[in-house]
Amino acid sequence: MKLRGWPCQLQPGRRVAHGSKLYRRPQNLTCKSSYFAIPENQLEDWLSSKGGLISGVQLQVTGSSVKQRSVIAMEPLEQGRLLISVPLHCQLRYDNIEDPLLLDLLEKVPRGSKNTTTGAWSFKQALSLLWHLSRGTTSPLHPYLATLPGLSPGTSQPRQGMLLGDDVVHELQYTPLIEDVLNQKYWWERFYSDELEPCIQDTARNPFAGKLVSLQLLGWALSVTKSRSFGLSKSGVHTMPAYIDMIDHDADGCNCEVSSDDSGSLNLIATRQIEKGSPLRLKYGVHDNRNLVLSYGFVVPSNPEEKFEFEFDPKIMLDLCDQATLQSGGSFLLAPWQEELLQQLKLISGPSQQVSDCSSTTSSKSSTASTAPPSQPHWQPQPSEQQAGSSSTAVAGTANSAVKASYVYFKAPNKEKQQPVDPRLLAAVRIMMLHGSDQEQVAHKDTVGTVGAVGAVAGRTQNMATVYGLTLEQLGDWEVPVGRQHEIGVLRVLVLLCTALYQSMGSTIQKDKSYFMELESEVQGLLAPEGLVHLGCLGGPADLWDSVRTERLGRQDMVLDTLLAVSFRLGIKTCLERALKAIVQRRKELLDLL
């Protein structure tokens, strides 16, 4: 049984290979005191004693104050070799819990965004982690817990979107991500105040051995479990496997994969020949930087999966069409057949959403998301749906959900994917720019291979329709324009749209680069030996519960948070800029042909 794409945590400060470049996250907080016995040294013995397997590989810990952890091939490894096997009882899983008090609390976690009848797994996993942590050395997973970020000396605290300081969130300058971050913060705080805090104050209901859980400790547990869990595709359960979760990750050059067997063991298998001394690397999934910030707390420069997502607003789009054709305000109207096609593209909801009135002018969307409480928590990137830009919309399946917003995107072209525009957005603009005499030339007829019904046309219900002989799918194809002059106008609209989106951000790329360099310089000063701040557990393995650092350390945390935010917004603006350049170049080529 293969695993769904839920990667484990990229260790802070570890190199993340991406293509030919290596990205290193800035180091987080560190210890300047000497360590007690490093827990990683005990992990292999513990795993082997519990029936696990470690073959031909070894965990290496380098660095003095700052840990660099990686799993290295100690000999040549052939393809198909079983390298690591982690038994079920050496994994942290919420379905392994038998304590009735904790099981009762697990029933009260917020519902997940994908399946509204099931509790969000991140909360279940976080509570299970805290349950084991509260048991101290009596927990069967104690040696594994001692290696987690914030517990093992010298390892960094998690720094995901939900943990960003409230005074830093606006530095992201990107509404979809800001909404996601505020959504996660809201449900983290609400679950704590509504369910967890009353539970732990009642000794008869407290499942954590009478220990108190702070809001910050819950946040730490949520961030650790979100970033280090693997999702089992068959059972739908998520698990944190000892040892395997410290393997480096490479989006393109992974050399091993994880699968589970009928016994519940998680197995790491070499997918190709691995040379002695080479680090093991897993593919951690296909994620844009928005998802990486939410789940892992880092960004990948020049991420090929990066998208600039935004809500499709038909009124603003009509106004841009007006500007592109130098029409006076309000003259650009959609015909019924155009509205039907936009409905078919799922960009407008139907008759209740009027788009004919374009009296509104193009305005910059606010960079600050609404703070209205969401109906459901959205915790993890969803396969395909979130990659298509639906993650920041209202969560489906709730009584309070409004019509789901339609998100489209621009994307930087690369060698494999040359189209810089969401096919739905491109199709929509091409449809909207068919006006005046163009509308009279539109042919409606039955055609094999079209997307589906578009409704009543000329008093008759048509099952299929084309525009100039093009299907809706073809209308979204970058290489299939309706006509040369028409396409020049379409590209003009897209240029105006890109420009408006860029101007809606709070700063330019040039200013962000300068600010980024200032922050990097300050980080180096903060992380110099004289500036290092205690992070991990120094008192001994029995003190894990009290050793988790949850307080924020003023300027140091603020700078690191801001550095992450500026890194993200630089990437998203660069993505939009590259898409704009591709659109401008295409328009120039068409103009040269006139």
TrEMBL record:
Region of interest (Disordered), ranges: 352-395
Record-level GO BP terms: methylation
InterPro entries membership: Rubisco_LSMT_subst-bd_sf, SET_dom_sf, SETD3_SETD6_MTase
Superkingdom of source: Eukaryota
Gene Ontology molecular function, alphabetical: protein-lysine N-methyltransferase activity
Biased composition (Low complexity): 359-395
Species assigned in the record: Chlamydomonas eustigma
Keyword set includes S-adenosyl-L-methionine: yes
Spans traversing the lipid bilayer: none
Keyword S-adenosyl-L-methionine on entry: yes
Name of the molecule in the record: SET domain-containing protein
PANTHER family, alphabetized: SET DOMAIN-CONTAINING PROTEIN (PTHR13271:SF140), UNCHARACTERIZED PUTATIVE METHYLTRANSFERASE (PTHR13271)
Gene3D superfamilies, alphabetized: Rubisco LSMT, substrate-binding domain (3.90.1420.10), set domain protein methyltransferase, domain 1 (3.90.1410.10)
